[in-house]
């Protein structure tokens, strides 16, 4: 074989491989980048999409006609369903912009970017204690604006001040076209083909994560295994640094500064806003207490209440608390076996069933009219925050007395 003929064969093979890679990656669409039709048994389940949500969700949301945005981290991504009957009944198009492991600036920056191009009617913001606390060693100015730039900011069409983002176009090209030719994407495409089971991790077109992998692990290994895996991670997270609600030397923090900017925009635009403190299983709350962060947790809720109160006009922005000890977050797990809990997957992530109840309470106003010890979900105001903070220790002790086998 001559060198010229060998070169031609090599080039032909390369072109065929390159073309096949592009076609497969485009058709399978493992990261939800190309709006390809989902076909049962082929590409309906997207096990790799969740790892690329920072890359895909903002682009996907920009392409959709939206009325409602759900904002937060992985907790609302798994727990707040855009297909809730309330949204369907009211013909609202909803997108779950929950971004696992993302910072406050990324969560709110993405949401703000989408709202600058769409007429959003309602925003649901899940706030998480761990997203707000800052290290005691942090010496940065909490009033510094805008937040320090990251690669995720390049994915936004607009800067914080509303001006055009000069980095957007090049980042968009990288996000959309580079995966077509990447061997890593090809590997994920093949994995997608081989993982078309309901028990696989998945991400829906509306941004919701149905937690199929959580369900599978529970059925195969049991509830206790998930709890035993998560609790040490939580302990490490809450004890790795000396965490504070405020930046040392201030009564403020960069996260609250970003939240304030975002709320000011929502109030100015007249967008109805429901902020809610995520529900945590009692084992999560116990970890907070054992880490010595109980007072910081209370201070955080007080600051949230004050921030909302000074920003909201005509109750356009309300703050809901779903984190108080009670029957919905106190499910026993040690002897639960391999049947999923009713409301939680593990200490940090609540199930869609609990999220559905939260939507009913916030949007259908189906919370109990008379306050009682088992009440789930209530609006926090300047008038009632002190009483809820004062009652928290008694509720916590009640859980310990009712579940001695679960207490450590």
Keywords:
alpha/beta; single chain; 9% strand; globular; two-stranded antiparallel sheet; 408 residues; six-stranded mixed beta sheet
* Tally of strands: 10
- Biggest sheet strand order reads 2-1-3-6-7-10
Q: Give the count of structural domains.
A: 1
**How helical, in percent, are the residues?**
40-55%
Discrete helix count: 15
Largest sheet: 6 strands, mixed
Shape: globular
**Uncertain stretches:** none
Gyration radius (Cα, Å) is 23 Å
Mean pLDDT: 94
Structural class: alpha/beta
State the end-to-end distance.
Answer: 74 Å
Structure commentary:
This protein has about 400 residues and is an alpha/beta fold. The protein has one domain (about 65-160, about 195-405). It has helices at about 5-30, 55-65, 75-80, 85-90, 105-115, 130, 170-180, 185-195, 210-220, 225-240, 255-270, 280-290, 295-310, 350-365, 385-400; strands at about 70, 95, 120-125, 135, 245, 270-275, 315-320, 345, 350, 380. A hairpin with a 2-residue loop joins strand 8 (about 345) and strand 9 (about 350). The longest helix has 26 residues, at about 5-30. The protein is globular and about 85 Å long.
